[in-house]
Structure formats: structure tokens, C-alpha cells
Fold this sequence. Notes:
about 100 residues
Amino acid sequence: xxxxxxxxxxxxxxxxxxxxxxFALTPGxxxxxxxxxxxxxxxxxxxxxxxAPEGLVVVADHQxxxxxxxxxxxxxxxxxxxxxxLVLRPxxxxxxxx
Length: 98
């Protein structure tokens, strides 16, 4: 197969069983696999505010409205990337964060 410089072969849908098995190696990690999300950070923040435990990994096959530095937006089309966010609950005071 010949692809142009900005084309990628689709990998097919994410395999939830394989992802679950991979994250099972990390104690306390739980996985939420979504076919599509506006932003994995937005979903993870919503889950954290609702009481999700540290270690929740939100994975999306298609992210439609990711946000980056300087409020730049981007997306990951289905089958082209693995986009994820991790819920952390640090015990270090915010003033000590880098």
C-alpha cells in the first residue's frame, strides 16, 4: 500500500480487552474506553468532579474537540491515534507544583 505523507492506514477500532489487560498491570488503574469524546480531558475532569478515583484512564478512539496550549483546538480522526487522559489526585500542595 502506498500512502501520501499525510495519510495513515486505519488500524480499526481500539481493542478494549487488550487495553484492559494492559492497564491491569498497573494497580489502581481503571479504564473507560469511549468510541468518541469531545475531549478526553473534559471527560476525565467531569468524572473526577463526580468522585472518580485516581487512576481512571479515559481513552477515546475519536477526539472531536481537543484543546492544547494557547487554546488551540485539534482532533484525532477515528482509527488514527490513541488519545487518553489520566485522573490524578496529587497530595502535594499546589504551591509546590512545578
